Amino acid sequence: MTERARLDDLAGRQPPALPAALFWTRLHLVRNLRRRAFLLWALGLGITLVALRLVGAPHRVLEQLALVYLTPLLGLFFGSGVLREELEDQTLTYGFTRPVRRAWLYMARVLAAAGPALTLAAAAAAVAARSPGVAPRLVASALLGGLAYTCLFAAVGLRSRGSTWIGLGVFLVWELGVGAVPGFLGRLTLVTHVRSLSGLGLDAGVLGRLWEPVAWPISLAALLGVTALSLALGGFWAERREFPLAR
């Protein structure tokens, strides 16, 4: 059955909210994992990380690369255009015209977009880990951080057409800039909590010596809280926003 036929089949049903959302998630997750962008990301990250390991790059550098840089960027890339493809393909109405709340379908679409981002982030963290004993902690941090970033940037994407540039600015200025500031201000960034969960410190000279990790329960609650809040806000906006399709 072709993808268009599967969408037609979904449009002809009258499913309850949860089964419909799960179907939508599964459909788009499989679709995202087969996309050329995901395959290119996987190939590029694999070659880069293996090459860095072969040339003897320090494990700490690889871990910082995987968690502090790649995880947010993957969330930005896959999350910021959550509904853009449906708008361009004019398939958004297959979901939004059914008797299922838009919020459910939006959250399903976000979780499907998080699939490739989390897969790549977890794989990069596992390859970068200095030892097998460290890998589970790094992978868990990459999964939680990647999910929070994807949901956050997806919500931003509903509010602005230039979501990719806005998200990149947030990452460079807020996450990397403010995240290097010791104390309360730095704890307002997601990257601080990803660092704390993973056990990574801050390699930034004097600031690195002043930086203190956050207790893991607080970091865990912060990442899960941002994830839940972003999904809720995105669902709220999806319910109220008009999505005109190009003719």
How would you describe this protein?
Helix 2 crosses helix 7 (102-128) and helix 8 packs antiparallel against helix 10. It is built from twelve helices and no strands. The protein is mostly helical. The chain has one domain (3-240). It has helices at 3-11, 17-33, 36-54, 59-79, 84-89, 93-96, 102-128, 135-159, 163-177, 190-198, 206-210, 216-240. The longest helix is centred in the middle third of the chain and has 27 residues, at 102-128.
Q: What are the defining features of this structure?
A:
12 helices, mainly alpha, globular, 247 residues
Helix and strand topology:
Elements: H1 3-11, H2 17-33, H3 36-54, H4 59-79, H5 84-89, H6 93-96, H7 102-128, H8 135-159, H9 163-177, H10 190-198, H11 206-210, H12 216-240
Low-confidence stretches: none
SSE order, one letter for each helix or strand: HHHHHHHHHHHH
Please give the share of residues in helix.
over 70%
> What Rg do the Cα atoms give?
19 Å
Largest sheet: none
Q: What is the averaged pLDDT score?
A: 82
Quantity of strands, as a count: 0
Q: Domains counted in the coordinates: how many?
A: 1
Structural class: mainly alpha
Distance between the termini: 27 Å
Q: What is the molecular shape?
A: globular
Q: In DSSP terms, counting alpha (H) and pi (I) runs of 4 or more, how many helices?
A: 12
Strand content: under 5%
